[in-house]
């Protein structure tokens, strides 16, 4: 029998190929990310706290009980406040610093661009665990920081307890500024050099080029990085978990550590933990909506 | 004339200060790591008396102890295992999906692809508790598979997004002419799409390798068996338990630092490119 490749056959084969290609990845994604996210929201409205889902203690819908509990918890506001400190350091610290470094390197104001870029970005790639414990030791009473301070001020006594968030914020600035430098570098390189040259020939100084050529061209990127920094700050977890664990006395805790404590430390309270993570997701989705809005409004000028 | 000379002096001074500032930030970035490495060669007794300077006597006993007692060979093998499998699986599955989305017309694409793009925005924290519960229910708690599947799933959205956008730029004509020549979609995927997608595959691989290698939270809650842990978890456990034996603690941290440091020094161009590509999209 001669093989006839009809249109219907090709269509069918195409459809089969499509699903064979797409389905494995999609199922993995649904199982690991999409379903758990929805599940987390559902759990936050129930009384389920571990054990068998069916046949065990009956699971009740409790409405917004856990959210009410959450918004009445002093710990929640303390964690949120620390998150906001991190937001502040990210937006007003990492971004300007990252931009400054990128700008200096991009404009060729120093030689050895590769060297500086490589070294300043280095902290970002190292395991958070290593960074966290390293800085914990560095700032500890037995560490290098009190010793360094004593070079300038003999008899200096350092206690981590006085302002526990300051070392944390410092390390966040130290670790991630390089990332913003890289992002700005990549986008600065997209600016047409001819425009800058033309401005220089017309007599514009370094500051004027920055003010009238480069910053307007980057306005979209600056907005996007700002939102990135905000949502990244709301999620921050690893570093603080390793460095302080939220202590002393929860004074360096953030929302994600609050959630982790409720779920995995001591007696678990999964519904409350899920309520916390749902609040975090809602905040971060609001921010993403804001990005889209900001992109439309400011990004169009590029 | 004087004006030009004046300007020259001024630009030298400003250049000097620019260098000074850049060197300051470089020293700031490197000093803590430098301090860690030199401290790891001191005995704990020496460290307590000499916290900042070079060791008077360089000892390697900390490394020997940490290497054996921290079970680092096993942890490193585990880390390579998790990172290797996760990276390969993400590349294959996400580029397969990307090929389907980009080159085969189907009415389900907007919904499916759209859901992946939303997935880029989801965070690990929001799925940590449910994943822990689900992995327990399906009996994958304390298994390698129970770590790998979440790792792979978490990396899918970014992989699918970058893969699809890139494969779209491959000319349709290439795929169509191969179809007319009788090649199956599977063959087209391996022989045409994959070779042409190498640049974006490098980006996805870089993002996955760094992310997976450094991950420690999820593996910490999904396993309790020491034999299944990865290097960062081992470092945390070992260094945390030895908070007063500074020499060994620093040696363990240095061991934890080295793999990523080497990876970075070899692939720094690709890493910075990949981060810029991945971050702005996120």
Can you offer a commentary on this structure?
The complex is a heterodimer of chains A (302) and B (282). Chain A has 302 residues and is an all-alpha fold. Chain A is built from 12 helices and no strands. In chain A, helix 2 (65-71) packs across helix 12 (270-298), helix 7 crosses helix 9 and helix 11 packs antiparallel against helix 12. Chain B is mainly alpha-helical and 282 residues long. Chain B folds into 2 domains: 2-39; 63-281, MetI-like (MetI-like fold, Orthogonal Bundle), CATH 1.10.3720.10. Chain B is 80% helix and 0% strand. Chain B has helices at 2-39, 44-49, 61-69, 72-103, 109-119, 124-137, 144-168, 172-180, 185-196, 198-214, 217-222, 231-241, 246-281. Classes of the chains: A mainly alpha (302), B mainly alpha (282).
Helical segment count of chain B = 13
Biggest sheet of chain B, open or closed, and with what strands and sense? Answer: none
- Secondary structure: number of strands of chain A: 0
Strand portion of chain A: under 5%
**Percentage of residues in strands of chain B:** under 5%
In whole angstroms, the N-to-C terminal distance of chain A is 61 Å
How large is the count of helical segments of chain A?
A: 12
CATH class division of chain A: Mainly Alpha
Structural class category of chain B: mainly alpha
Regarding quaternary structure, what we see is heterodimer
Structural class of chain A: mainly alpha
Question: CATH superfamily of the largest domain in chain B, please?
Answer: MetI-like
Q: Report the uncertain regions of chain A.
A: none
* Corresponding CATH architecture of the largest domain in chain B: Orthogonal Bundle
- Described by the principal axes of the CA atoms, the overall outline of chain A is globular
DSSP helix fraction of chain A: over 70%
CATH domain class name of the largest domain in chain B: Mainly Alpha
Secondary-structure element order of chain B, as H and E?
HHHHHHHHHHHHH
CATH architecture of chain A: Orthogonal Bundle
The domain tally of chain B reads: 2
């Amino acid at each position: 029998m001669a093989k006839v490749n009809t249109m219907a056959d090709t269509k069918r084969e195409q459809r089969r190929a499509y699903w064979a290609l797409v389905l494995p990845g999609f199922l993995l994604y649904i199982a690991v990310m999409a379903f758990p996210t929805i599940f987390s929201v559902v759990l936050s409205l129930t009384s389920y706290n571990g054990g068998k889902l069916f046949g065990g203690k009956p699971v009740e819908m409790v409405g917004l009980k856990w959210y009410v509990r959450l918004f009445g918890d002093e710990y929640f506001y303390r964690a949120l406040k620390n998150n906001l400190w991190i937001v502040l350091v990210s937006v007003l610290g990492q971004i300007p610093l990252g931009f400054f470094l990128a700008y200096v390197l991009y404009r060729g104001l120093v030689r050895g661009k590769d060297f500086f870029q490589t070294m300043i970005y280095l902290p970002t790639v190292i395991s958070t665990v290593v960074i966290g414990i390293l800085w914990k030791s560095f700032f500890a009473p037995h560490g290098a920081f009190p010793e360094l301070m004593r070079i300038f001020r003999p008899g200096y006594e350092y206690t981590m307890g006085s302002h526990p968030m300051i070392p944390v914020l410092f390390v966040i600035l130290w670790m991630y500024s390089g990332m913003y430098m890289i992002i700005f570098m990549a986008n600065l390189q997209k600016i047409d050099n001819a425009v800058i040259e033309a401005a220089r020939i017309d007599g514009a100084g370094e500051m004027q080029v920055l003010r009238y050529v480069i910053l307007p061209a980057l306005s979209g990127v600056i907005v996007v990085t700002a939102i990135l920094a905000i949502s990244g700050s709301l999620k921050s977890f690893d570093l603080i978990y390793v460095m302080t664990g939220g202590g002393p006395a929860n004074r360096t805790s953030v929302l994600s550590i609050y959630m982790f404590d409720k779920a995995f430390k001591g007696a678990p309270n999964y519904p409350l933990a899920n309520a916390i993570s749902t609040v975090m997701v809602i905040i971060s989705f609001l921010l993403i909506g804001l990005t889209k809005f900001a992109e439309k409004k400011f990004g169009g000028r590029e | 004339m004087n004006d030009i000379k004046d300007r020259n002096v001024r630009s030298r001074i400003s250049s000097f200060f620019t260098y000074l500032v850049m060197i300051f930030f470089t020293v700031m970035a490197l000093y803590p790591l430098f301090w860690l490495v030199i401290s790891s060669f001191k005995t704990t007794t020496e460290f307590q008396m000499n916290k900042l300077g070079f060791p008077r006597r360089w000892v390697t006993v900390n490394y020997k102890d940490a290497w054996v007692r921290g079970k680092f060979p096993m942890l490193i093998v585990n880390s390579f295992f998790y990172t290797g499998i996760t990276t390969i699986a993400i590349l294959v599955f996400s580029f397969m999906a990307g090929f389907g989305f980009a080159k085969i017309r189907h009415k389900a694409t907007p919904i499916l692809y759209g859901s992946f793009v939303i997935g880029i925005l989801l965070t690990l924290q929001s799925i940590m508790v449910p994943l822990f519960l689900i992995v327990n229910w399906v009996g994958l708690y304390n298994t390698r598979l129970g770590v790998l599947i979440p790792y792979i799933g978490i990396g899918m959205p970014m992989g699918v997004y970058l893969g699809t956008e890139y494969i779209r730029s491959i000319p349709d004509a290439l795929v169509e002419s191969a179809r007319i020549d009788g090649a199956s979609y599977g063959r087209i995927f391996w022989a045409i799409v994959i070779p042409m997608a190498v640049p974006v595959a490098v980006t996805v691989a870089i993002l996955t390798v760094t992310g997976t290698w450094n991950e420690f939270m999820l593996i910490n809650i999904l396993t309790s068996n020491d034999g299944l842990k990865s290097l960062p978890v081992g470092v945390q456990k070992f260094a945390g338990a030895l908070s007063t034996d500074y020499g060994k603690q620093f040696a363990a941290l240095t061991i934890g630092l080295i793999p990523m440091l080497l990876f970075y020094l070899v692939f720094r161009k690709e890493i910075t490119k990949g981060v810029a590509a991945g971050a702005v999209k996120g």
